[in-house]
């Protein structure tokens, strides 16, 4: 699995990256309707051409301090199938939509572009404002390797359009399923830098927040967390004791039981029951899927923020229904800004924001997440990112890693990622 990215000839990527670059001046945002302050930085929005027929939307904001020397960061949200505009508008971008249906944009004083030049990319295609030409051959295949290739091509197009960022300190960052996007892209970049295809990319490091690094770890740790957070009771938790199989080598001190033998991971990243003939193993498999995965998503808690107070909503898109139709309340600032990100972007056409962002006419309405890509078309090739991490480590390339987690995310939570890193360290040091 660790060698899967090698199927793409690296010379071919170099040729594809020579496509004619658009003029960055035509991408410059000169007037963004609804802004309540005057930005002190330049910003650009447009399209980066990747594989034939594919066009990825980007929004680039230069650093507020010393942009000529500040590092360049790429940000990728996860899903798979969710827009990086989520991160831009509700997390570390320079703007926040207001609660009056997103009609105004206020300053985010904690924006990452205080110190870095930030590139937000809607990837893969058909996410957000990214699209495929209607005249291009039909292509419903989405997977991790194709996404990494298109992201490299997007970066080549970006550096062609913004050559002043060549040889600038560069970091690949992201969250959630970015735990797959970021390392697979970084690994491919390392190979292309080392073989001379991308001599102008000064890759320094990668960072992943609340990442989907290992699906089995997330299922195992999910069992502990649903008990510690009171989602299941002591009797249900104790019932798992008959299924407890301690790892032969306890490299992770918190990993008391290993339930991974009882489940399989399908192409969509879901833990599925193994049809054992042994009744005890079958029962263990069913319980592992129920407690380690299904209850994580079916709880009335917001799966991405278990500490938030909640409201019930009768209408959510398909992606949101995975969490039983719950939405964050608007009393919570972060939750509120997430709630308003959707109407903000969906009203771009009427407010003139789509025109300001140079979005072409005729595209489908912007969505936070593309449910069909997430649930039907996207094949997850890397349920365990360890082989990809090992390839990067074995390459000898001087790369910095940052893996960070909060304590509120149940979908891609801290305990599973901690176990992953502990195993990686135990193997290599």
TrEMBL record:
GO-annotated biological processes: negative regulation of chaperone-mediated autophagy; proteolysis; regulation of protein stability
Record's keyword terms, sorted: Carboxypeptidase, Hydrolase, Protease, Signal
Signal peptide per UniProt: 1-21
Coiled coil: none
EC number, as in UniProt: 3.4.16.-
GO molecular function terms attached to this record: serine-type carboxypeptidase activity
Origin superkingdom: Eukaryota
EC class: hydrolase
Pfam families per UniProt: Peptidase_S10
Classification via InterPro entries: AB_hydrolase_fold, Peptidase_S10, Ser_caboxypep_ser_AS
Family to which the UniProt record says this protein belongs: Belongs to the peptidase S10 family.
Protein name according to UniProt: Carboxypeptidase
């Amino acid at each position: 699995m660790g060698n899967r990215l090698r199927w793409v000839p690296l010379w071919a990527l170099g040729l594809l990256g020579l496509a004619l670059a658009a003029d960055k001046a035509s991408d410059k945002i000169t007037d963004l309707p609804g802004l309540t302050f005057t930005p002190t930085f330049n910003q650009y929005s447009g399209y980066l051409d990747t594989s034939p027929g594919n066009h990825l939307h980007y929004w680039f904001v230069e650093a507020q301090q010393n942009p000529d020397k500040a590092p360049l960061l790429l940000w990728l949200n996860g899903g798979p199938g969710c827009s990086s505009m989520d991160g831009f508008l509700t997390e570390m971008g320079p703007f926040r939509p207001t609660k009056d249906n997103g009609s105004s944009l206020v300053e985010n004083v904690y924006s990452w572009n205080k110190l870095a030049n930030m590139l937000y990319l809607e990837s893969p295609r058909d996410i957000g404002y990214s699209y495929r030409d209607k005249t291009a051959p039909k292509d419903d295949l989405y997977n991790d390797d194709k996404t990494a290739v298109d992201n490299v091509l997007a970066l080549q197009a970006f550096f062609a359009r913004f050559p002043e960022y060549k040889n600038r300190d560069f970091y690949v960052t992201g969250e959630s399923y970015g735990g797959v996007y970021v390392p697979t892209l970084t690994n491919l970049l390392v190979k292309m830098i080392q073989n001379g295809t991308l001599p102008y990319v000064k890759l320094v490091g990668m960072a992943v927040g609340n990442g989907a690094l290992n699906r089995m770890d997330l299922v195992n740790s999910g069992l502990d967390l649903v008990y510690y957070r009171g989602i299941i009771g002591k009797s249900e938790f104790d019932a798992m004791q008959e299924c407890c199989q301690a790892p032969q080598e306890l490299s992770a001190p918190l990993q008391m039981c290993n339930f991974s033998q009882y489940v399989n991971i399908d192409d969509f990243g879901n833990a599925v029951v193994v049809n054992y003939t042994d009744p005890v193993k079958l029962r263990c498999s069913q319980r592992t899927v129920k407690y380690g995965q299904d209850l994580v998503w079916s709880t009335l808690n917001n799966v991405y923020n278990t500490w938030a107070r909640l409201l019930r909503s009768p209408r959510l898109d398909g992606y949101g229904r995975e969490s039983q139709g719950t939405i964050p309340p608007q009393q919570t600032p972060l939750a509120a800004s997430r709630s308003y990100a959707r109407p903000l972007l969906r009203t771009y056409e009427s407010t003139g924001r789509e025109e300001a962002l140079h979005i072409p006419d005729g595209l489908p309405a912007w969505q936070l997440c593309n449910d069909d890509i997430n649930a039907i078309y996207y094949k997850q090739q890397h349920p365990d990112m360890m082989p990809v991490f090992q390839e990067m480590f074995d390459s000898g390339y001087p790369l910095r890693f940052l893996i960070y987690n909060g304590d509120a995310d149940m979908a891609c939570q801290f305990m599973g990622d901690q176990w992953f890193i502990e195993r990686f360290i135990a193997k290599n040091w």
